[in-house]
Write a structure and sequence with these properties.
Low-confidence stretches: none
CATH topology of the largest domain: Rossmann fold
CATH class of the largest domain: Alpha Beta
Number of helices: 16
CATH architecture of the largest domain: 3-Layer(aba) Sandwich
Shape: globular
Mean pLDDT: 93
Largest sheet: 6 strands, parallel
Number of domains: 2
Oligomer: single chain
Order of helices and strands: EHEHHEHEHHEHEHEHEHEHEHEHEHHH
Helix content: 40-55%
Strand order of the largest sheet: 2-1-3-4-5-6
Strand content: 15-25%
CATH superfamily of the largest domain: Glycogen Phosphorylase B
């Protein structure tokens, strides 16, 4: 099988890198198309989107022309998008004329990034949250399918840290993620009591609670660095973004894969993916958190046992290799119908 994988940019150990590695392991003839190579850089793109819509449209058309030329030259059987927010309906129709079947695996709310017109063009449309399946089907999207997110076991795993890395990355509690108000509300009371570090973009710009200032490690961090943060932390806190209704975010898979105890809110699908209380710890209300944190910070053996069980589950059942194997199986099954 020959696949053209379409992703934003070639970041080592990223979602695109992990999918490419898994597909190669499965014997797929894969080539990558990184649309930021043919597009404005991210910060310029955000500015242009608001200030210069004509430039955005021009760059989008140019990127789609490059994509079609690449597909015409390589003649893949499948054009595989991750999100695909820059591919328009006309481009997807042209890819079909070339002979491509269209696949999308999206890790966000699809209605936030894609038009119904675009989503209807896909032959297989995989979402990380099953909440979206019925709304997509009602809008005429073909074959909306649920596929949870994953971890890369070559990136997120227990590692030995140097003394300097333990000091740089270590804390009792870590939170890794982009700023939003709900996360600030959750973390601000905890910052007064616990050794907490918050890693991710937007916090210094938007956080207003003074309790958080000493906790912030603002910015973007590589997957390798994030794995070190998990390894150096006793507990990873998780709060799903408002766009997630029933599904489970990437942090849940990556933190557990790293061998860190995950203490998380409890979306509907979490119990189908992990054994609650044995592989991950859940809180139902924010007021429950201090008692849970006190317990697991003071019971090292119990914390380590749950973290180890979560790590085994993530590496055994929730890797990109397993997810991509599922996608290929669905496509082959449909071929034989």
């Amino acid at each position: 099988m020959k696949i053209l994988k379409i992703d934003p940019h070639p970041v080592p150990y990223s979602w695109a890198w992990s999918c490419e590695r898994a597909l190669k392991q499965l014997g797929v003839d894969i080539s990558m198309f990184f649309y930021r190579d043919h597009y404005l850089q991210a910060r310029i793109w955000r500015w242009a989107k608001a200030k210069l819509p004509w430039l955005l449209k021009m760059e989008t058309r140019q990127m789609n022309r490059h994509l079609l030329a690449t597909a015409a030259r390589q003649k893949p059987e499948i054009a595989f998008f991750s999100k695909g927010e820059l591919g328009d309906a006309a481009t997807l129709q042209e890819l079909k004329k070339i002979g491509c079947r269209l696949v999308n695996w999206i890790s966000d709310d699809p209605f936030r990034y894609l038009s119904i017109e675009v989503m209807r063009e896909y032959d297989y449309f995989f979402v990380y949250d099953p909440y979206f399946l019925d709304p997509l089907a009602q809008k005429g999207v073909k074959k909306p399918l649920y596929l949870p997110l994953a971890c890369d076991e070559e990136v997120f795993k227990p590692v030995d840290l140097t003394r300097e890395e333990k000091i740089k990355y270590g804390s009792d509690l870590c939170f890794i993620g982009t700023y939003d108000q709900a996360r600030e509300s959750l973390l601000a009371p905890l910052a007064k009591k616990y050794n907490l570090r918050i890693w991710g973009p937007g916090w210094k710009k938007h956080a207003v609670n003074d309790n958080l200032k000493h906790c912030l490690r603002d910015g973007f961090y590589s997957p390798r660095d994030i794995n070190k943060i998990y390894n150096a932390s006793k507990i990873c806190l998780n709060l799903h973004h408002a766009q997630t209704v029933w599904g489970v975010n990437m942090r849940a898979f990556e933190a557990t894969a790293s061998g860190c105890l995950l203490v998380t809110d409890n979306p509907k699908e979490l119990g189908a993916l992990f054994d609650l209380g044995r592989e991950v710890v859940v809180y139902q209300q924010e007021k429950d958190l201090p008692d849970l944190l006190d317990h697991y910070l003071s019971h090292d053996g119990e914390r380590a046992a749950i973290a180890a069980a979560g790590q085994r589950k993530a590496h055994q059942e929730h890797t990109y290799l397993q997810r991509l194997k599922k996608i290929l199986a669905v496509i082959k099954e449909q071929q034989n119908v």
